[in-house]
Structures are given as C-alpha cells and as structure tokens.
Amino acid sequence: MTSLDPAIAERIQFTESGLVPVVVQEATSKAVLMMAWMNAESLQLTLTTGRATYWSRSRQELWVKGETSGHAQQVREVRLDCDGDTLLMQVDQTGVACHTGTMTCFDADRLL
Amino acid sequence: MTSLDPAIAERIQFTESGLVPVVVQEATSKAVLMMAWMNAESLQLTLTTGRATYWSRSRQELWVKGETSGHAQQVREVRLDCDGDTLLMQVDQTGVACHTGTMTCFDADRLL
C-alpha cells in the first residue's frame, strides 16, 4: 500500500468513499479524453510513476490505464481546483482513451 | 419546474443525489475552466436557454453561472460520455470562470 504525501492529502477533499474525480486532458490537442476517479493510493502512484493510475469503481481495484489495452497515459501535469475536490491532469495518450475505441469518451453522444 | 426531455434523461446515469458532473471547457482556448454539477432541471435549462446553469451542492439551489458576478457562460456544445455519467460542455466564458478571480479553477495549485 503506497501512502499519499500528507502535504498533498490534506489539500484534497475526498468523497465519503475516499475518491476524487480526475478530468483527463490530452496535453497537445487539449481534447478532454475522459473523467475517472482516484483514491489516495492511485494518486500517489500516478505522481510517483508518471503513469495514470485510477480507482475502478466498478471493479473496486487499482486500474493502471493501458495495462491490458496498451493505451497508457504518460502524465505531464496534475492540478487541484480551487475548492480541492477535482483534479485536472494533462497526459500524453498512447492510442485511444476510450474503451469503445474512440479517441475520447465524449465522441459519441452530442446533446447540443 | 422545468422537465428534462425524457429521450435525454434516459441516457444519463445520475448519482443517487440526482446529479451529473459537468466538465466545462472554454471553446476557443480549450482550457478546462471548472467542474460543476447539474440536476435534470439545470441541464434542461442549460439546453434550452444556452446559458450554463448548474446545481449548487453547497447552497442546494439552481445556480445560473454569472447571475451575480456577470461571468456568464454561453453554451456552444454539450456531450455525454460513453457510460452516460459525465457531461462535457464547450462554452464561451465572459470574464473569468473561478470565483477566486483566476481564469480557471485549476490555476492555483499544481501537484505535479
């Protein structure tokens, strides 16, 4: 179990489930690729390995992005918002971000 | 009370509290401005008025962005993600997006 740096942990408002939402943006194109969730451990792993690592709410386990698909995300920058409850991450995306095969998770359904 | 179009409502996975997170991106610069929450009513108002309208979790009320500050958001596009639980919205931002006076809510605190 990897522990999150206390100086960072104290600035983040995790949900009751111990999670924080992460907006993931492609560093070059600026496309918003997806939104995912991190717990303290996955954030620490992301910060220390430079490889985007999330918490899968459906599988209830750590999820190293691209570990099975090869579609990894190299992390360039991580920022916390003004009220400390959302992260914004700039990444270099290998292949596509969405499990459906589209570049982003927002490509298929336009409401307006 | 404004009702959300059922054809849209059935595609969205709202949380137990009846909310959906919205990633807000500036249409021209592609900067991610903020993340906020909508309930069905605020989404319907956003889609019909073209003016970004959220649900304030702290005040528990509808929040027409810029109504008091003047920092309104004109909505250009709204998309739903692949699993239907996150919205991505392209807006034209008047003034700054963050209540702290910075352009985005992610300007102040960089973790990596």
Query: Which ranges of chain A are low-confidence, i.e. pLDDT below 50, for 5 or more consecutive residues?
Result: none
Query: What is the topology, as strand order, of the major beta sheet of chain A?
Result: 2-1-6-5
Summed up, the helix count of chain A is 2
Q: Report the span from N to C terminus of chain A.
A: 43 Å
**CATH architecture term of chain A:** Roll
Average residue pLDDT of chain A: 96
Described by the principal axes of the CA atoms, the overall outline of chain A is globular
Tally of strands of chain A = 7
- What would you report as the Rg of chain A, rounded to the nearest angstrom? 14 Å
CATH superfamily of chain A: Phosphoribosyl-AMP cyclohydrolase
Please name the two chains that share the biggest interface, counting residues whose Cβ lies under 8 Å from a Cβ on the partner chain. A-B, 36 and 36 residues
Structural class determined from secondary elements of chain A? mainly beta
Identify the CATH class of chain A.
Answer: Alpha Beta
Oligomer: homodimer
Strand content of chain A: 25-35%
Largest sheet of chain A: 4 strands, mixed
The helix/strand order of chain A is HEEHEEEEE
